[in-house]
């Protein structure tokens, strides 16, 4: 497909073009906030680069093939998110403006492109659950919710992009041959993510142009992933809605856990903090890359869970109950993880500490003991007196 080459080349080309201009445009993420772990200023142009590659590839597809209304409407919603996200990266517009833009993009996707959750599958073992008149509001809520989930999970290098990559490839492997737009769109999104991740993770050959997604990119990824998931779950012979939950389990669980914690403390659920899963794992593992590896292993495990359930004959309702139990365990575990980490640090500190011996005290050689201040003062006074005094 020529579109894949266009997507990859134009994404990388946009990074090379915008990176020198990022400071002048104000699209820079500066270190200093407690939540931020980077030490240098980084350009937040990843979302713009992904969108340029995606948009040009889609434009080429529309020119070469029969025009697609759902693709056009979907891209229009993406344009809104990217524009508002870029402005937020520049001027810090606040969560209310972002929510308004997300709701607008969701309505365009749901009503214009017809991307709607009409059936939720056999959740409880009594047959498929249809939404009826709740289709539109539930669909809009799902779109806005997953957009925010990816926006919130974007806290360390490679995390949001890799989670989107895992979810999209998993969907692509399950799509039937008559899936239409998604058979074109998902490979193109993957083609734009690969150069972004190379720059973001500073892989060999890409270290001089480090970039972040920015709000424009994280919201765009959430929008594209939920677009693909809803389409795939409502396509005959596609994936089940319950399986889709497992593909985005980590962003959803982390969002629910963090928002719940903020609400319990009487704070806005959209107030930023450092209690996301990746922050906790960084404190435990001591490295962002180790935290990234742990989360991606978990994400891969969740992604193959529906396939394992199908192989062993687990029903869709049983898989749903297993998902609920996993979500609950995750929320409880994450609430206990900081306490566990503090106890572990205290235990390790006690094991490493050895009380000074009498000899080391006398010689003042033990690093864990310091001479009292009054001893030092007496020593200085004595040295200042005449000899023989």
Topology:
Blueprint: H1 2-18, H2 22-25, E1 28-29, E2 42-43, H3 46-64, H4 69-91, H5 95-112, H6 135-153, H7 159-174, H8 181-200, H9 214-234, H10 241-247, H11 249-264, H12 277-285, H13 288-311, H14 316-352, H15 358-363, H16 373-384
Antiparallel strand pairs: 1-2
Q: What does it look like?
A:
By secondary structure, the protein is mainly alpha-helical. The protein has 16 helices and 2 strands. It has helices spanning 2-18, 22-25, 46-64, 69-91, 95-112, 135-153, 159-174, 181-200, 214-234, 241-247, 249-264, 277-285, 288-311, 316-352, 358-363, 373-384; strands at 28-29, 42-43. A two-stranded antiparallel sheet has the order 1-2. Helix 3 (46-64) packs across helix 9 (214-234), helix 7 runs antiparallel to helix 8 and helix 12 packs across helix 13. The longest helix is centred in the C-terminal third of the chain and has 37 residues, at 316-352. Residues 359-378 have low confidence and may be disordered.
Count of DSSP helices?
16
Low-confidence runs of at least 5 consecutive residues: 359-378
| Helix-and-strand structural type | mainly alpha
Task: Choose one word for the global shape.
Answer: globular
Distance between the termini: 96 Å
Beta-strand proportion:
under 5%
Biggest sheet architecture: 2 strands, antiparallel
Determine the mean pLDDT: 87
Number of strands: 2
Kindly list the characteristics that best describe this protein.
2 strands, two-stranded antiparallel ribbon, 389 residues, globular, mainly alpha
